[in-house]
Amino acid sequence: MSVHEKPWADGTPCWADLAVPDLELARQFYGSLLGWQFEIGHEDTGFYTTALIGGRSVAGIGSVPPGAEGMPTAWLTQIATSDIQATVDRATAAGAQVLSGPMPVMEFGTMAVLADPVGATFALWQAATMTGANVVNEPGAMTWNENMSNQFAAAKEFYQAVFGYEYEDMSAPGFEYATFQVDGRPVGGMGGGESNPFWSVCFAVSDTDVTVADAVRLGGAVTYGPEDTPYGRIAGFTGPFGERFYVMSTDEPNSPPAS
């Protein structure tokens, strides 16, 4: 089932958002590319924009916060926790740096942003009224999140210490990769070979090749693929602000609109 309305299990990537210098340009690009509709927040939220598929939330777009002007634009993966302070404490004990928080985000929940010991930035989300993505794994929604770095073993050790992940190693000669699991279910991946560590987000689409053509037409750039995999046809891009993201084809149809 792609619809998910309850809080996500601890350790599950539950949300992704993007802070941009031009909200309207971001809405135009992603709305056209991924079929998003938008719910735009009030001025006191900085007009934070929730992207919707069939009336259900899939991702967020916000304004660049004061003091962060000029910083590289990147999708931020947020990982669910039911006790954000305890998770922050485990993360810092394992070598993470706290970049902001934990801080309440109005009535929606509590957030902290961290850099892992390898240098990849991610966030923690403790849900209140906003639980995270309400639909996943179907066109326009998140389908995968992964941590990529040049220190595969160290990254695995850190996230296991923080979230208790179990790993299923899929490595081969010249290729390092593992899925991480929560309650025996794969919820994301970790890979090696990336000189600049980062967390990536992958959105599902119905036709990767059509999305590639659309992304170029809309002003994005193709950075990877398209390439067939056992899980779907994948391609990587940079968006209008230089942000990296991926898409992968899926056979899953969209869920009925929210009532």
What is the topological layout?
Blueprint: E1 13-20, H1 23-34, E2 37-40, E3 49-53, E4 56-63, E5 75-80, H2 84-93, E6 97-105, E7 109-115, E8 121-127, E9 142-148, H3 152-163, E10 166-169, E11 177-182, E12 185-191, E13 198-205, H4 208-217, E14 221-229, E15 232-238, E16 244-249
Parallel strand pairs: 1-4, 5-8, 9-12, 13-16
Antiparallel strand pairs: 1-5, 2-3, 3-4, 6-7, 7-8, 9-13, 10-11, 11-12, 14-15, 15-16
Provide a count of the helices. Answer: 4
The fourth-level CATH homologous superfamily of the largest domain is 2,3-Dihydroxybiphenyl 1,2-Dioxygenase, domain 1
pLDDT < 50 runs, ≥5 residues: none
Architecture (CATH level 2) name of the largest domain = Roll
Number of domains: 2
Descriptive account of the structure:
This protein is an alpha+beta fold and 259 residues long. The chain folds into two domains: 13-127, 2,3-Dihydroxybiphenyl 1,2-Dioxygenase, domain 1; 142-249, 2,3-Dihydroxybiphenyl 1,2-Dioxygenase, domain 1. 17% of the residues lie in helices and 42% in strands. The strands form two sheets. It has an eight-stranded mixed β-sheet with strand order 2-3-4-1-5-8-7-6, with helices on one face. Strands 10-11-12-9-13-16-15-14 form an eight-stranded mixed β-sheet, covered by helices on one side. α2 (84-93) runs antiparallel to α3. The longest helix has 12 residues, at 23-34. The radius of gyration is 17 Å and the shape is globular.
